[in-house]
Amino acid sequence: MKKKKLKLFVASAILILIVVSAAVFVSIKLIKKEIQSERYYVSEDVEFCKQIKFLCKSGYEPFSDGNGCGCKLTPEQDNSGDDENKIFCNEGSRGADVCIELYMPVCGWFSSEIKCAKSPCAQTFSNSCFACSNNNVEYYTSGECPK
Q: How far apart are CA 14 and CA 16, in angstroms?
């Protein structure tokens, strides 16, 4: 009887490990996509796009093309010509109850209301969730902060 319970416990633990691993993998892919994406599709069905309305996160605006519809960086947010690609924190990215423990460093840039003793007025965070959870952070850029 004890062997049967032990086998059931081990099988349950393995199943939980597989599910958690899959969730972490999907989260990593979504975070990478969000950080690197200048545009993303809400739908790839052109006809459906003509019938729907959708909101984009802060710093993005709606677009539609022959492949569907989605959100793209607004011109004032698109710094692809600069070394920085600013991603602004919005209400949806603030106040997370839990952030994934994934090291994908971002530089969280503090709002102009914060006075810093040295430049840059920024802090390196382990990922975008932790950066936007700090109410002093206005936007973040990929990678560690400049020294």
A: 5
